[in-house]
Structures are given as structure tokens and as C-alpha cells.
Write a structure and sequence with these properties.
This protein has 14 helices and no strands.
Amino acid sequence: MALHRAFSFPLSHVEEDERIPPLAVSKNDAAKLRSCEAFQIIRGLLVDKDVVEFCSQHFHDSRQDKEAWLLQRDITYALIVPVLEIYRHATQVANALLGNRHIFDLELVFRGEARGAFSWLQCFVHEEEDWCLTRGCPGCVVTHALQAEPTIRMILVACRLSESLAQHHNTSHLPMFNFWSQAMKKALDEDPFWGPKLWKDFEARAQKLEKGIEDLVRQCIELAPMAVDAASSQDSPPSSPKSGFLMRAKPLLSQQEQQKNWIPMIVAGCWTTLLADAAEARREAALSPSSLSPPAPAFTRCISS
């Protein structure tokens, strides 16, 4: 059963002083993120800065604190994007193979730990759609991440996958969030509800989910050719996975399996795909100057597809 902070429990340090962002970002780490073009592009996809709205609890925060809330929200978004992109591609593969069967049968395409990971992600995305898309007040998005074990697990898994990028030689242009798991640990250790004794349990659950996601990616790569064939044979085929990074990763499975370094390539592939989508969104926006609405974040498709 997932752990949640009870409403009757004493307020956490975040809730007692809601004007203080709970996760610390050093000046050095903040400077690295500001100089990272890929991170700035992803930030630009989130929302037009003129329409960012803080709730009544965070509206009167100082400008500095609001900037901290926005940065921490954007880090959260950038971290979970690859995880949810993997889930989107897995959903496409399952949809193509099952055709018109009920959506809750999608997990049957996978086996073992991959099935468990897919089921967990499916439930999580359904229950936490607004949070996954960082809708609403930036301060509330950040604090919500610490309110329940599932969101904590999601962040920790995302951190572990992001940290794996350091093993890949061609990711210097991508943002690194190797500091975020320690920021999470410090915030949770200082929280009177969670406390320091639960960190090992959080890590164990995250490691298990990470292993399931790795197996899910492996099975998607194996199933992708069959999924493409199945989708092309249907009268009204679902979104085909053939254009996704998992299909392009087919050769990596045989070449890199023994070296255990193909997952960083998959995560990097997620970022490459998303940055390409961002560039396309910019071009479309440039061609439609009369549009009153900013382009929707490319990642919205991870929820709606």
C-alpha cells in the first residue's frame, strides 16, 4: 500500500512555511542548468511565463522564492519526461498488438517485472495526470511531489535514469540532475512525517520500479517489429511505434546488452525526440503568429496518446 501523509498528522516543514521551497538547488547547479540549452528549451515548453499563476498560498511569496518554485517545478518536469515517454511508447506497442481490446488489457502484452512496471505507470499517470503535466501553481506542483510515496518513487526513478546519462559519452548537451536525489533525501529526512528512517524503503521501491522499466524497454524493443506489422494491418490502426526512439534502438539491444549501458542511450533518445518536438512546435508557432495561445507542450502526447 502506498504511503500518504495523513491530514491529521502534524504539518511538515514545507506546509508550516509554504513560502520556502523544500528542495535546495546550489548556485553552481542552478548556473549549470541556466547554461544548458536543452533544459531551457524544455522550460520554454511548459507554459507562457505571462500566464503562470500561483495559488493564494504562494501568490505573496517573494520574487526570489517564486523563481525557486518555478525552477524546481521545471526540474521535476524535465526529470519525469523520459519515464513518461517510455510509458507512452510502451502503450503504443501494446495498443498495436492488442488492437481494439480494452485499455486495461494492455499490460498483458508484457511479462514479468515489465508487466508490473507498466501497470504501475498506467495507474500513476491516470491518478496523477495534472501533476505529470505540471498543471497549476508551481509551488503546489513541487510540494505535491513530497506528499505521497508514489510521487516520491517516480522522482527517485527519474533521478536514477537521469544519472545513468553520465555513462553515455554523447550527452554533454543534456541537463544533468545528479544533485536532485540528494535534495529529495534531505527534504524527506527533515520532514516530520517521513523522517530519515524511510529513505532506504523509498530507494528499494525505486530500484524495483527502475528494474521493471528497464525490462519494459527491452521487451518493447523486441515487440516493436510485430507491433508495426499489427498496426499496419488494422483498418483503424492506433499510433504506430515505428517512428519512436524504441524502434530506432533495436540495434542497441544486441550491441550493448552485455555492456549494460543501453539504458542511458534510451534516455538520451527520449531527450532527442523531445527536443526535436520542441523545435517543431517553435516552427509551427512562428508560422501562426495570430494564434492567441502558446503551443501545447510536446510532452502532452505522453498522457493523451
